[in-house]
Structure formats: structure tokens, C-alpha cells
Design a protein that fits this description.
The complex is a heterotrimer of chains A (172), B (585) and C (636).
Chain A: H1 18-30, H2 38-49, H3 54-64, H4 68-75, E1 89-94, H5 97-101, H6 104-115, E2 121-122, E3 128-133, E4 145-147, E5 150-152, H7 160-171
Parallel strand pairs in A: 1-3
Antiparallel strand pairs in A: 1-4, 2-3, 4-5
Helix pairs in contact in A: 1-2, 2-3, 3-4
Chain B: E1 8-13, E2 16-21, H1 26-32, E3 43-45, E4 50-52, E5 61-64, E6 71-72, E7 83-85, H2 89-104, H3 120-127, E8 151-153, H4 163-171, E9 177-180, E10 187-190, H5 206-210, E11 216-218, H6 222-229, E12 235-240, H7 261-271, E13 275-278, H8 279-299, E14 306-307, H9 312-321, H10 335-351, E15 358-364, H11 368-372, E16 379-380, E17 383-384, E18 388-391, H12 392-401, H13 423-426, H14 433-447, E19 465-472, E20 475-483, H15 485-496, E21 504-508, H16 527-543, H17 553-563, H18 569-575
Parallel strand pairs in B: 1-7, 12-13, 12-15, 14-21, 15-18, 20-21
Antiparallel strand pairs in B: 1-2, 3-4, 5-6, 5-7, 8-11, 9-10, 16-17, 19-20
Helix pairs in contact in B: 8-10, 8-14
Chain C: H1 6-20, E1 45-50, H2 53-57, H3 60-73, E2 80-85, E3 97-100, E4 104-106, H4 114-123, E5 133-134, E6 141-142, H5 149-152, H6 170-175, H7 180-188, H8 191-201, H9 213-222, E7 228-234, H10 243-250, H11 252-266, E8 270-275, H12 280-295, E9 311-316, H13 326-333, E10 356-361, H14 362-374, H15 376-380, E11 390-397, E12 403-408, H16 413-420, E13 430-435, E14 441-444, H17 454-459, E15 468-473, H18 478-492, H19 498-515, H20 521-537, H21 541-545, H22 548-556, H23 558-565, E16 582-583, H24 593-597, E17 603-604, E18 612-613, H25 623-627, E19 633-634
Parallel strand pairs in C: 1-2, 7-8, 7-10, 8-9, 11-15
Antiparallel strand pairs in C: 1-3, 3-4, 5-6, 11-12, 13-14, 13-15, 16-19, 17-18
Helix pairs in contact in C: 3-4, 7-11, 7-14, 8-9, 8-11, 10-12, 11-14, 18-19, 18-22, 19-20, 22-23
Classes of the chains: A alpha+beta (172), B alpha/beta (585), C alpha/beta (636).
Bound molecules: flavin mononucleotide, iron/sulfur cluster (8 copies) and FE2/S2 (inorganic) cluster (3 copies).
């Protein structure tokens, strides 16, 4: 069974602590076999680092003895993986069909306008990341907006200000 | 009616009935029947074991009765009773729209494109009668990557046929190129879209050889050659590799496998080179050194096996992928580099020319040599051993540019001092050739006997990995041959795991060796062409009177007058090199 | 403890029965568990609270906590048990609470209602009127869920345990005959017999294609090789469909059990559930279920004392709709880019790791155990000629009762929308219902009486798909809906083949052009041509069906497309460039409501006089239209 290569060097970067690499290493080490486990490992890596920067992708590639292009090809294929750090709060607007027919597009527009960024972007201060997601299965509450894990159902455009301001206030 | 047995099926194509083997594709069946179906992503180099089954372009769609959607003929196998229509309105419309869609996301700058008139997409558009591109919209736009000395990546021209990916990953196992992103934004390229120069690319150029468009091409150095030729201060000499003479003719409409050595020399002379030399001369020189090194390693318990080192792509491959094995390759520089340094020392001295004024141009089947010639350790006194490398294709373009009527040129001979060569050096152009040449010399040196039959047939062919055990005196020399880096990888893994039983191994990065190099005229997926070039190489060998490197009189003279003997201090200084560990990305 | 025979299982079932007998099995199959009176020291009431994603989103976790705390405080915690189940299907009304054996159904229950439920209902035995469901058409209060129109026409086979059992307790599953079908298959039937029962039942794949399940099992069984795999496709990518998730969350064991049965039938010893990473709750419940099943020997070696071994692992998706396609799914499981490949070879011939593999959908599996227990005659007596059994739909959009409904095949759309779904929201006019998600099409009023099955939906230009059913009213623009689906497709296309990678992008651009008022008649033509080409030439089902929403809306709403192109007018006002808001001075009473909601303050006027809209500033958000109680705002 293919096992990981543990001689791999841990990259020296300021914002990616060594302990996190060690944690990832331990996880990979614990797997019975690394064959076909790339996606699973990337999930774990994203869990640990919050995102999958180049250094982490290359680290995984080297540990698994596969080309960096293959890891990058996989990471860039799946929308669940992100290569940029996300903001402190993630606003996810459901753009599933049920939410769409109940006006989710207008909700996104309104949020985008309010925080000045488009979907899949993060505000300059790193406070909010805006994301479009597909059906979270709360269609009964459409349109649905999630901030981090909190679900807001039957959201109206005019509710946006209050919802988002509450996070800013909490901060202040 | 058909005689039906188990191995064939009865099918109908465009109303004509055929019995065909049961496991072939509709495309193969149609080709056999003389019915042409256009293709684009499809690539099937049988002998080189390179098959691209992406089925992504959807240009080869045909109607199979009973199916409600069209089927891709390149990957659909025939079935009993199948009825196919290749030219129904639905099929030809679908094909044309597929090409129109590709063009709607394409720069369409054929005029200024390096692939103009040699581009599969362009000819397809022509063949399918594309007269307008109905679908306009956003185009992918990537800056050209000109970071490397060898290849240019112009991703905007990529049509996602995935041939390069198959080549680089499955055949070459380099893993440089992968599809990234998805949907309209998907693109094939190196990890993180880094510049090629930062990747572990070997510059073998196999991706270039199969890319149907100009998304991957070689760096064009022809202008530099023209500049040098027109600089009165420079003494410009040219060398041509063995594989050029059996391929160049293709660019002028000649049959693949036509040997054009004489015309080639004439053309180069007419272009204004001060001297026209043969890399074969340097190949003979390489054998002198490499055979000596092998004997030395055998006799003195040196590192075995010894791997040949005349292919720079292969050298870069081992540096990135097997840095722990850097002591196995021979330390010999590649032939054209040896040539360059000899030209700038021995030749310069002999003719009394300031080496700094000598410009060495290499005409190579290879794009890796472009990058190789820029390697820092291969420069002496801050001057490259070889100054400019152009490919077979670039030379063809220059001949056309110069207005030379190539097909009707008279023959001429290489210039002397560095122009003589033997049959041994000619076969450097094909897989198995280098080791066969080395064997011809090593045999005689080790046994002290004359080698009667110089043709080691067991070393020839196109199988990816070949081996032979050759009785040399009282020992059996175990020889291995691999072409294509995927095969090389297998051999290296054995060496790493201590399982290799060979004394000497020849490795060539390109499937087929240099005849299938990334700088050769495009074969457009037809591997018959590569085979014909190989036949021509062996024919050229047979036509030579001298067929062993150490019999080359100019080489003998070179040692007498300048180098002393193989592996001498001077040889080491000039003809040998070292390798370094490189990152893998 | 390990269960090593059918008899042992039955014993455990009888023991477990104690904890569930208060609950009524609204299962259509077989003998119901009879009710009996609780003795003094026994639990006498169950408070069943929905723990599905929808209800969790409306705070049901907190509600459960409150209920438990208060029970404890009142000293009732050993008499009344709070049970957290999977989705009841009626998410719109969530959180749902049901009290058994009283069979009282409360809706929209807030955490702060916990006290009242316990003090009034549990302790004093008084129903809480304000928490009862009010039926929207006639405004009546309904106590029991069996009486609700939403549930009346439903027939629950796949969803039989959702909202009934605690999915985190294997004994509750066993109490409702769980693992009996596996036990019987292994000990009394040959693999061929299992396949025969499934084949004869007429069960077809619920993942969209409708391929006969028995036949697929047979093919995989007949394939060469001794290593085979069974995969449960839990990718559920159709945006607006959530039945698979509900089953996985509400009844995970039925999937495990059915996969084991399938494994036995085709000759596989390993099964995988490929599940979206976006379904954390389903993942958690599956993990718990697998662990429990292993503990009692219902997964692992020598199941039911036979020589059959079977185990299951989870594989996670990572956000790619196309990974629902089986060949892409297999690539993804292998850790690669989820690009489909050309079939053949089919997974049944050459699938996961090159071995014969059978891929079935979650809901398909959810039917298996009932078929084995009740026989193929029972199953095939339900449904239409070619489509047997029931189908779960995720009913959503502009409809009153949003939720999951399971109905026999052959039920008409009208019954679903008007009887079960309670009609259109806000008394608006029905326009169309979209089925089959991004692969399907719209169905209009004139086809509402079509009995639903695979064939009849295809015949009217839509498809069954996975079961998403989105109801649209007069305010939904069909060009805009097409654009929405195409945007989804361009986001989700894997990019492998030309028609889908470039073609759908061009389709999206054309639709965008049309909805922004720049479309021409030639564009409509071009769009159609592109649709046909993409349908006929794409590599996988994603591309082959991507034009369906456009073709079907063009077919049924051609006038609407024409009006966008020729009259530069969007009848619904959804296409902003083609809409125009103004105030009818005859109707405006100057109430100021519109001016107050306008986000860009472009409505002016004095109170009690006519208001006007400054068109040059208006962003066409439609807020004024919704705000005006006097129908004075004209749109578009
Ligand atoms: C683009 C695309 C997406 C699909 N998504 C799903 C899905 O989310 N879930 C599913 O069960 N099947 C999906 N399918 C169908 C599967 O390929 C496969 O047919 C199915 O899982 C087989 O199971 P069944 O026979 O039980 O329906 C999808 C197919 C296509 C072409
Ligand atoms: S790649 Fe081919 S089609 Fe494209 S611009 Fe160059 S010659 Fe023209
Ligand atoms: S082919 Fe057409 S476009 Fe090209 S140069 Fe000639 S006339 Fe101009
Ligand atoms: S030149 Fe060779 S190694 Fe480099 S990308 Fe192309 S095929 Fe791969
Ligand atoms: S770079 Fe060339 S060979 Fe590679 S996918 Fe693009 S067009 Fe094909
Ligand atoms: S095999 Fe020849 S052409 Fe190919 S990379 Fe090596 S030297 Fe160059
Ligand atoms: S149809 Fe779309 S999703 Fe399917 S293979 Fe082609 S590009 Fe990928
Ligand atoms: S449509 Fe929106 S922006 Fe325009 S007037 Fe009405 S409220 Fe204001
Ligand atoms: S809400 Fe209606 S009635 Fe009131 S001011 Fe606005 S347009 Fe006039
Ligand atoms: S579509 Fe938004 S939650 Fe389902
Ligand atoms: S040649 Fe067949 S799909 Fe491209
Ligand atoms: S989640 Fe509670 S009813 Fe659906």
C-alpha cells in the first residue's frame, strides 16, 4: 500500500505555522493507505489551515509523491476548496432554485452593494467573505442567507442592513 | 453477405457494408474503408503507446442509428449490426459548430501565428467549411508565457484537447501539465499556472510535438541566427544533428524518411554560414569519452549501470525526479555541446579566430537543447558553448525565408576539421543508437578484436524498454534501452531499488529518440512518419564506409593534436559536466 | 453484542419495541405496531422534535434542549422522552413537534414554547391551540398530521422512518423491522433471487436516469472479476432538491442495510457512500450509524452468521455538481478531478479502481428493504405501468407548503401542487412548475393533469430528474429562469468537452443579451441551434441535458422570449433593463409607503398627493411595487 513520504520538508513561511504542517503530517501518517486519498487529505488540510495556499498544496503533493500540477488540478476543480484565506465571517447566500425564484439574486445584489465586494470575494479588512452557495436544504425558508453557521430564513432585502450590522456591532 | 465469426462484426457505414474486427473504433473502421472522419483531440501513436482518449473536442461525432445522441467515433467501438452515418446533416452541423465554438474562444491570429499553415485547428476549420463564427462572446485571455528558453505557452490558443497532458503525464510521467479550474475557465498548464521555467519541465517538447495548435510551441530563435549571419564581426558556424537529415525534407513536401543530407548542407552554405559542420562528428567524440567512461567504471568498480547523458531532457528529468541518483549518468556533455566547446577551442586555435567571435548554431530536433545551451555550467568564460539552437522546423522556416528552393538543391559535403562522421554517430538519432554506437567501440577496445558485424539488431526497434546481453570478450555486457521518460522512470526505479541488472543504459526522452523530437516537423499524430525516419537513419548508417566512432580520422586527429586521450584532464575540463538536484513542482 | 442470526435480530426488535411503541408507524407497508397502555414506570409520552436541517436552521436544537431541561425541572424526565428525528418533510412549518401517542402535530415551535408544551400539554393534557397548523386554503386548524392535506395524499416508503425514529439509535431502526430484510436475504435467498425480486418489483433508479435497478445489479453481478464495489450516490447536486439528504439524515440505517443487500446480490464486499461535504449533519449521522452497525455485527464479517462480509466507508465530495454523474463520481472517489469519461466502459464493467461497480442513488436504496420485506407484487402494485412505487419530490418555490413529499407514481402535478402543496403563495397565478432541475424543463397549466412518471414527463419536455419541483408564479420570468439554470451549468461544467465548456457559456451569454434587451431574432435562432448541438454532442449527461430548460421554456413561452427581443419588454419585470416602474396617479393615495422602502430614494411626493418615480435613478428593485397596498405602482 502506498504510504506517504515523510522526509518532505516543511516550508518556511510566516503565516503558515509549522505546527499546522505537523498536524497535517500526522493526519496523513495515520491513514491506512494514501491511494486515492487526495481529496480527503485536502479536506483535512483546509480544516487545519482554513485554506489551501500553494505551499500546502505542494507539501501534500510531495508527501504523496504526486506532481504539484495534479494536486493543483484537483484543488481548482472543486468549489469547496479555496486558495485564499476567508474573512472572519462568511456570508453565504443560497442561490439554489427555490431561493432564486424567491428573489435570492436581489439579496446578493443588496449585500454586495452594502459591503462593496462581489461573490467569492473578501472585504479588504478581512471581515466578511461573500459566497454564493447552492441549496442548503432549507428551501422551506427561502430565500436563505447564512452567516457562518447561523441560518437566516425568509430574508428580505431590507433585512440585510440589520443582519450585517449586528456583526459589525458585535465587533465594536 | 458477411461471413461472421467471433472476431469480426458486420457494420454499415454510410450505406456501405463492412466486416471489421470487433474491438476497433468507428474511426478506425471508417479509415480502413477510406471514409474520412475529421478529428482533433484524438491521438493514437500505436507504436509509442501514446493514446489520448479525452474525447473532448467532439469533432468526430457521427450518427449511430438507434442512439438519440451523436457518438464520438474516436472512442466508440463498433458493435454487431451497427449502422453509422458520418455525413448526415446533424453530424456535419455538430462538427462545424464544435469548431466554431472553439474558434469563438480563440485569438484567431493565424497570420502571425507560429503554427500558420501547420495547425490542426486551422486546417479543420478550412475542411469543415467554417465561414463565420456565429457565437461571439468572452474569450479566455492569458498572457503568453515566454519564461523558458525552450518553449512558449500561449494558453489562449489552447483548445483543451488534453493531448499534452496525456503526453506529459502518461507517456513522459513528468506531471507538469494538468487541467486546472473547470468549465469555461478550465485550462491546461503547470501547477498554479506558474511560468514554465519555475516548473520541473524537462523541455522534452513532447507536448509541443502533439499540440494541435500554437498553445505550446518552441521559442523562436531564427532571428538571432539571421542577426549573427549578418554581423561581419562574427564567424558563424553551424552543426546539424543526425535526426535532421531524415526529417527536414518533410517540410518541403518530401516523403517522410527522405534523406536530405546533401541538400541540407547546401542550404546552410547558401544561408551564409562560414562553415557547415556535423554534430555527428561530436557524436563520435562522445562515444570516445562515453565508451571509455563505461570501461573505466566496469574495470574500477565504479557506479553501474552507467546511463547515457546526451539527451538534455532526460538529464533534467533525473535532476528533478531522482536527485538521489545523480551519479549514475555519464558525465559526458551532450554531443552538440561538446561540439561547441571544441569549436571555440580547438577549431578557433586552428583557424586563428578569436573564440569570442565564433557563434555556434545548432540545428536540433530538440527543444530541450535550447534550454540546455543556456545552462550556466555549460558556459565558459561567460560565453555559451553553443550560442543558438534552432529546431528542424525553424531551419525549414529559415530556408523558406531565404528563398532557397530546397527540393531542387544540389548536394554538398560538410566542411572539414569538424565535419567527418561515422555510421555510429548517425544512429544517435534513433532510440538504441547511442548505445549501439558505444558498443561498437567498447567491444573493440575491451576485446582488442575487430567487430565484424556492427549491427546489433537486438538493440533496435520501437519497444519502450529493450534489453540485450552482448558477449564482449569473457564478459556479458547487459544493455538496457528506454525511450520516453515513462519508460526511463521504470528503469530508474529499478536502479533506486537496487534491482537493475544492467551495465549500461541508454535513455532518450522522446518516444523514438531524436527522430521523434519535439523540434521535428509535426507528425500530427501519424507515427508511421517516425518509423520511416528510423528506417532512414539505419539506411544512412549502412551507406557509410566508416561505422565505428574511433575510426573517425578527424576524431583521431583531434585527440592527437589537442585532447590527448579520452578522459584526459583536458577532456574532463572541456567535455564533461556535472548535475544538480532540482525541486519538483 | 453481535447479532449472528435472524432470530437474534427479532429478539432485539421485540425488546427495542418498548421504546417506540408510543409512536405510530405511518408506514404503508405491513402490520402496524399495535399500541398498548403504558404501565406506571414506563415512558408514557414521546415528544418528537424534528432535527432535520430545515428545522435546525429555525432553532430546533435549542428547543430540544429547553424541553429536556424543563422536563427535568418538573420531574417528568423519566416519563417523557424527547426524541430528535430526521425531517418530517414539512420544513416550511418548522420546527415541527409531534406528541405521541396523542398524535398532536405542532408547527413553527420556538425554543421559548418549550415551557408551555410541557406545562400545558404534557402535564395538564391541554392542546396548545396557537401551535396547531392552520390550513391555508380554508383557514382551519388541524391537529393530526394524517388529516393535513400535505400528508393525506402521500405514501411514505422511502421516507417511512423520517420523522419517526431517532436516526442516531440503531435499536429504534431495528424496532421498525430494520435489518430484517438483510437477514432474510442472506439466510433465505440466493443473490440471484434477491436480484429477481428487485427486477420484478419494477424499481427504477431514482437518481434521474430511471434505469431498472435489478438489471443494473444483474449486469454488475455478471461482470468479470471477483472484487466488486457498491456505491451509494449521495451527491445530490440539483439546487433545490434535498430528499437524499433527508433520508441520509433521517434514516441512515436503511441505506446501510440496502447497500449490504445490494452487495450480497452483486457480489461486493465493500460499499462506499459518496456524500457532499456540504451535508455535515448527514455525514455525522452516517458515521454514527456505521459505527453502531459494526458494533452489533450488522456490518463487518460473517453477517447473520453467513460467510458474507460487508463494510461501508464514506467518501466526501468537494463541491462539484458533475460529480453526481457516476463516472465523474468514481474519479472523484479515486482522488482525481471529477471529470466524467465516455461510456462505455460503464461502471458495471469497469468502475472504481477498474473493478465492476454498481452506483445507485440514495432514494433508490431507500426502497430496497421494503421491497424485500413486502414482496415485489406489493411494490409493483403501486404506481403506473412503467414506473413503479413512489417518488419523493422536493416541493419548493412559490408554493404554500414547501417541503418533501412522497407520492405514488401516477399522481398528477395538480394534486401535488394544489392538494399537497396547498396552492400558490400569496394567491398569485400559477405559471409553471419546473422538474428535473438543471436537466429538466417547465410544465405549464395545460399539462398539470399529467400523471407523473418517467415517460410522461419526458413526453412533455421535462424529466423526472432527482425530484426537484419548483413552482413558479406569474412574477417569474422564463428567460430569467433559463438564464439562472445556464449560469448554474456554466459554473458546474467540468470543462472537458467543447459543446458544454464553450457552448453553454455562449448560451448563457445569448440569454443574458436577451434579458438585457439587446437580443435579436437571430439570437433566438442561434440559441436554438446551439441547444440542439449541445444536446447531441456533449460528453456526459450534464451537457446533454443542459439545454432542456431553455428548449422547454422556448417551447411553452415563446411569446415571452419574443417580447424580450421584439418589444424589449419583460412582462414580469424581472429583467431589469426591460422593466419600468411608474405610479398610476389615479390610484396613488399618497400613503408614502413606497417612498419609504425605495433603497435609492427616487420616489418623491407630498403625503396624500400623487407620488412619482424618478426613472433615471430607479434601480428597478421592485420594492415599491410590493409596498404599495393600493396597486398604484405599475410594473413593468
Ligand atoms: C450531471 C449529472 C448529475 C447527476 N447527479 C446525480 C446525483 O446528484 N445523485 C444521483 O443519485 N444521481 C445523479 N446522477 C445520475 C448518476 O449518474 C447515476 O445515474 C445514478 O446515481 C444511478 O443511480 P440510480 O440508478 O439508482 O438512479 C447525475 C447524472 C448526471 C449526468
Ligand atoms: S493556433 Fe492555429 S488557428 Fe490558432 S491562430 Fe494559430 S494558426 Fe490560427
Ligand atoms: S486568406 Fe483571406 S484574410 Fe487571409 S490574407 Fe487572404 S484574403 Fe486576407
Ligand atoms: S516539455 Fe516535456 S516535460 Fe515539459 S511540459 Fe512538455 S511534455 Fe512535459
Ligand atoms: S496545450 Fe495544446 S495539446 Fe495541450 S490541451 Fe491545449 S491545445 Fe491541447
Ligand atoms: S530525445 Fe533527442 S530530441 Fe528528444 S529531448 Fe532528448 S535529445 Fe532532444
Ligand atoms: S458535458 Fe460538460 S460536464 Fe459533461 S464532460 Fe462535457 S464539459 Fe464536462
Ligand atoms: S423599483 Fe426600487 S428603485 Fe425603483 S422606484 Fe421602486 S423602490 Fe425605488
Ligand atoms: S405606496 Fe402606492 S399609494 Fe402609497 S404613495 Fe406609493 S404609489 Fe402611492
Ligand atoms: S434552494 Fe436555497 S435552501 Fe434550497
Ligand atoms: S476526436 Fe473524437 S472527440 Fe475529439
Ligand atoms: S427539517 Fe424539519 S420538517 Fe424538514
Amino acid at each position: 500500500m502506498p504510504k506517504a513520504n515523510f522526509q518532505v520538508e516543511i516550508p518556511n513561511t510566516e503565516n503558515l505555522p509549522k505546527e499546522k504542517f505537523n498536524e497535517l503530517k500526522q493526519y496523513i501518517d495515520g491513514l491506512k493507505s494514501t491511494e486515492g486519498a487526495l481529496i480527503q487529505i485536502l479536506h483535512q488540510a483546509q480544516e487545519i489551515f482554513g485554506y489551501l495556499p500553494k505551499e500546502v498544496q505542494l507539501f501534500v503533493a510531495r508527501a504523496l509523491g504526486m506532481p504539484g500540477s495534479e494536486v493543483c488540478g484537483v484543488v481548482s476543480f472543486y468549489s469547496y476548496f479555496t486558495t485564499e484565506p476567508v474573512g472572519k465571517h462568511v456570508i453565504s447566500v443560497c442561490m439554489g432554485t427555490a431561493c432564486f425564484v424567491r428573489g435570492a439574486d436581489k439579496i446578493v445584489d443588496r449585500i454586495a452593494k452594502k459591503i462593496g465586494i462581489g461573490p467569492e470575494e473578501t472585504t479588504k479588512d478581512g471581515f466578511f467573505t461573500l459566497k454564493n452557495i447552492r441549496c442548503i436544504g432549507a428551501c422551506g425558508l427561502a430565500p436563505v442567507v447564512m452567516v457562518d453557521d447561523k441560518v437566516y430564513g425568509r430574508v428580505k432585502e431590507e433585512d440585510i442592513d440589520d443582519i450585517l450590522d449586528s456583526y459589525r456591532k458585535e465587533e465594536a | 453477405m458477411s461471413t461472421n465469426n467471433k472476431d469480426t462484426v458486420h457494420i454499415t457505414i454510410n450505406g456501405q457494408e463492412f466486416d471489421v474486427p470487433k474491438d476497433i473504433t468507428i474511426l478506425e473502421a471508417s479509415n480502413r474503408a477510406g471514409i474520412k472522419i475529421p478529428t482533433l483531440c484524438h491521438l493514437d501513436l500505436h507504436d509509442l503507446k501514446a493514446v489520448n482518449k479525452a474525447a473532448s473536442c467532439r469533432v468526430c461525432m457521427v450518427e449511430a442509428h438507434g442512439r438519440d445522441v451523436l457518438v464520438p467515433s474516436c472512442v466508440t467501438t463498433v458493435w454487431e449490426g451497427m449502422e453509422v452515418t458520418t455525413n448526415s446533416l446533424q453530424a456535419i452541423t455538430a462538427r462545424r459548430i464544435a469548431v466554431e465554438l472553439l474558434l469563438s474562444n480563440h485569438p484567431n491570429e493565424c497570420f502571425t501565428c507560429s503554427k500558420n499553415l501547420d495547425c490542426e485547428l486551422q486546417s479543420l476549420a478550412h475542411e469543415l467549411g467554417v465561414r463565420e463564427i456565429k457565437w461571439s462572446g468572452e474569450k479566455q485571455n492569458f498572457p503568453k508565457d515566454i519564461s523558458s528558453d525552450a518553449l512558449v505557452r500561449d494558453a489562449s490558443k489552447c483548445i483543451m484537447c488534453r493531448r499534452c497532458e496525456t503526453m506529459c503525464n502518461e507517456v513522459q510521467t513528468c506531471g507538469i501539465l494538468s487541467a486546472m479550474g473547470r468549465g469555461f475557465d478550465a485550462i491546461v498548464g503547470p501547477a498554479f499556472n506558474i511560468p514554465m521555467v519555475e516548473s520541473s519541465c524537462t523541455y522534452c517538447g513532447q507536448c509541443v510535438a502533439v499540440c494541435p495548435t500554437a498553445a505550446l510551441t518552441e521559442v523562436n530563435h531564427t532571428y538571432k541566427v539571421w542577426e549573427a549571419l549578418n554581423d561581419p564581426d562574427k564567424h558563424v558556424i553551424v552543426q546539424t544533428a543526425p535526426a535532421i537529415r531524415v526529417a527536414l525534407g518533410e517540410l518541403f513536401g518530401m516523403e517522410p524518411g527522405t534523406i536530405v543530407t546533401g541538400k541540407l548542407v547546401t542550404a546552410l552554405k547558401r544561408m551564409g554560414f562560414n562553415s557547415v559542420f556535423d554534430t555527428d562528428f561530436a557524436a563520435d567524440l562522445t562515444i570516445m569519452e562515453e565508451a571509455s567512461e563505461l570501461i573505466n567504471r566496469i574495470e574500477n568498480n565504479g557506479t553501474l549501470p552507467m546511463l547515457t547523458s546526451c539527451c538534455p531532457a532526460w538529464v533534467k528529468f533525473i535532476e528533478h525526479q531522482f536527485p538521489e541518483l545523480l551519479d549514475v549518468p555519464s558525465t559526458c556533455k551532450s554531443p552538440h555541446i561538446m561540439f561547441g566547446i571544441i569549436a571555440k577551442t580547438y577549431y578557433a586555435k586552428k583557424l586563428g579566430i578569436d573564440p569570442n567571435k565564433i557563434v555556434v548554431v545548432s540545428v536540433m530536433p530538440c527543444i530541450a537543447k535550447k534550454a540546455e545551451s543556456a545552462r550556466p555550467e555549460l558556459t565558459k568564460d561567460h560565453k555559451n558553448n553553443v550560442d543558438i539552437v534552432v529546431t528542424t522546423r525553424e531551419l525549414g522556416a529559415m530556408i523558406k525565408e531565404a528563398g532557397i528552393d530546397f527540393s531542387n538543391l544540389p548536394d554538398s559535403d560538410f566542411d572539414h576539421v569538424l565535419g567527418e562522421s561515422t555510421g555510429a554517430s548517425v544512429i544517435f538519432g534513433t532510440t538504441g543508437g547511442v548505445i549501439e554506437a558505444a558498443l561498437r567501440t567498447a567491444y573493440e577496445w575491451m576485446t582488442g578484436e575487430e567487430l565484424k558485424d556492427v549491427e546489433f539488431k537486438q538493440l533496435r526497434g520501437l519497444d519502450g524498454i529493450r534489453e540485450a546481453s552482448v558477449a564482449v570478450g569473457d564478459m556479458n555486457l547487459n544493455i538496457g534501452i528506454a525511450h520516453g521518460l515513462g519508460n526511463a522512470r521504470k528503469i530508474l526505479e529499478d536502479i533506486r531499488d537496487g534491482k537493475s541488472k544492467y551495465h549500461a543504459i541508454e535513455i532518450m526522452a522522446c518516444p523514438g529518440g531524436c527522430i521523434g523530437g519535439g523540434g521535428q516537423p509535426y507528425h500530427h499524430g501519424n507515427d508511421e512518419i517516425v518509423k520511416k525516419r528510423q528506417e532512414a537513419i539505419y539506411k544512412e548508417d549502412r551507406s557509410k564506409t566508416l561505422r565505428k566512432s574511433h575510426e573517425n580520422p578527424e576524431i583521431i586527429k583531434l585527440y592527437e593534436e589537442f585532447l590527448g586521450k579520452p578522459l584526459s584532464k583536458k577532456s574532463h575540463e572541456l567535455l564533461h559536466t556535472h548535475y544538480e538536484k532540482r525541486e519538483r513542482i | 453484542m453481535q447479532i449472528k442470526s435472524l432470530e437474534e435480530l427479532i429478539k432485539i426488535k421485540e425488546k427495542s419495541y418498548k421504546s417506540v411503541y408510543l409512536r405510530q408507524h405511518h408506514n404503508n407497508d405491513s402490520d402496524e405496531i399495535e399500541t398498548r397502555n403504558a404501565t406506571e414506570d414506563e415512558i408514557s409520552k414521546n415528544i418528537i422534535v424534528c432535527g432535520g436541517t430545515g428545522c435546525l436552521a429555525t432553532d430546533s436544537a435549542k428547543l430540544i434542549k429547553n424541553l429536556e431541561l424543563i422536563l427535568k425541572a418538573r420531574g417528568y424526565d423519566h416519563k417523557v422522552k424527547v426524541i430528535r428525528t430526521g425531517c418530517f418533510g414539512f420544513c416550511e412549518q418548522g420546527p415541527i413537534v409531534k406528541i405521541d401517542p396523542d398524535n398532536i402535530f405542532y408547527v413553527k415551535v420556538h425554543p421559548q414554547d418549550a415551557k408551555e408544551i410541557i406545562d400545558e400539554h404534557i402535564i395538564k393534557g391541554k392542546k396548545i391551540e396557537r401551535l396547531l397548523y392552520i390550513e391555508p386554503v380554508e383557514g382551519k386548524k388541524i391537529e393530526q398530521h394524517d388529516d393535513m392535506p400535505f400528508y393525506k395524499k402521500q405514501m411514505r416508503i422511502a421516507l417511512r422512518n423520517c420523522g419517526l425514529i431517532n436516526p442516531e439509535d440503531i435499536y429504534e431502526y431495528i424496532a421498525f423491522k430494520g435489518y430484517e430484510a438483510l437477514g432474510r436475504s442472506l439466510t433465505t435467498m440466493s443473490p440471484e433471487e434477491v436480484i429477481e425480486v428487485i427486477t420484478k418489483s419494477g424499481l427504477r433508479g431514482r437518481g434521474g436516469g430511471g434505469f431498472p435497478t435489478g438489471l443494473k445489479w444483474q449486469y454488475t453481478r455478471a461482470s468479470e472479476g471477483t472484487t466488486k464495489y457498491i456505491i451509494c450516490n449521495g451527491d445530490e447536486g440539483d439546487p433545490g432538491a434535498f430528499m437524499d439528504r433527508s433520508i441520509l439524515e433521517g434514516d441512515p440505517h436503511t441505506i446501510l442495510e440496502s447497500m449490504a443487500i445490494a452487495g450480497y446480490a452483486i457480489g461486493a464486499q465493500r460499499g462506499f457512500v459518496y456524500i457532499r461535504a456540504e451535508y455535515p449533519l448527514a455525514i455525522e449521522r452516517l458515521n454514527i450509524a456505521i459505527k453502531q452497525a459494526r458494533e452489533v455485527g450488522l456490518l463487518g464479517k460473517n453477517l447473520f452468521g453467513t460467510d458474507f462480509h460487508f463494510d461501508i466507508e464514506l467518501k466526501y465530495g468537494a463541491g462539484a455538481f458533475v460529480c453526481g454523474e457516476e463516472t465523474a463520481l468514481i474519479h472523484s472517489m479515486e482522488g482525481k478531478r471529477g471529470e466524467p469519461h465516455y461510456k462505455p466502459p460503464y461502471p458495471a464493467q469497469k468502475g472504481y479502481r477498474g473493478k465492476a461497480t454498481c452506483v445507485n442513488n440514495v432514494e433508490t436504496f431507500a426502497n430496497i428493504t421494503s421491497i424485500i420485506l413486502n414482496g415485489h407484487e406489493w411494490f409493483s402494485s403501486i404506481g403506473t405501468e412503467k414506473s413503479k412505487g413512489t417518488k419523493v419530490f422536493a416541493l419548493a418555490g412559490k408554493i404554500n407548503n414547501v417541503g418533501l413529499v412522497e407520492v405514488p407514481m401516477g399522481t398528477t402535478l395538480r394534486e401535488i401542487i394544489y392538494e399537497i402543496g396547498g396552492g400558490i403563495q400569496n394567491h398569485a397565478k400559477f405559471k409553471a412548475v419546473q422538474t428535473g432541475g438543471p436537466s429538466g424543463g417547465v410544465i405549464t397549466e395545460k399539462n398539470l393533469d399529467t400523471p407523473i412518471d418517467y415517460e410522461s414527463l419526458s413526453a412533455i419536455g421535462s424529466m423526472m430528474g432527482s425530484g426537484g419541483m419548483i413552482v413558479m408564479d406569474e412574477h417569474n420570468c422564463m428567460v430569467n429562469i433559463s438564464k439562472f439554470y445556464l449560469e448554474f451549468i456554466t459554473d458546474e461544467s467540468c470543462g472537458r468537452c467543447t459543446p458544454c465548456r464553450v457552448g453553454t457559456k455562449r448560451m448563457y451569454e445569448l440569454l443574458n443579451k436577451i434579458s438585457s434587451g439587446e437580443g435579436t431574432l437571430e439570437d433566438l435562432d442561434a440559441l436554438k441551434q446551439l441547444c440542439h448541438m449541445i444536446k447531441g454532442s456533449s460528453l456526459c449527461g450534464l451537457g446533454q441535458t443542459a439545454p432542456n430548460p431553455v428548449l422547454s421554456t422556448m417551447h411553452y413561452f415563446w411569446d415571452e422570449y419574443l417580447s424580450h427581443v421584439k418589444d424589449k419588454y419583460c412582462p414580469t419585470g424581472e429583467c431589469k433593463n426591460l422593466s419600468k416602474y411608474s405610479i398610476n396617479p389615479d390610484k396613488c393615495v399618497g400613503c408614502t409607503a413606497c417612498a419609504r422602502v425605495c433603497p435609492v430614494d427616487c420616489i418623491s411626493g407630498e403625503p396624500k398627493k400623487t407620488f412619482i418615480i424618478d426613472e433615471s435613478i430607479c434601480i428597478k428593485c421592485g420594492a415599491c411595487f410590493d409596498a404599495c397596498k393600493f396597486n398604484a405602482v405599475i410594473k413593468p
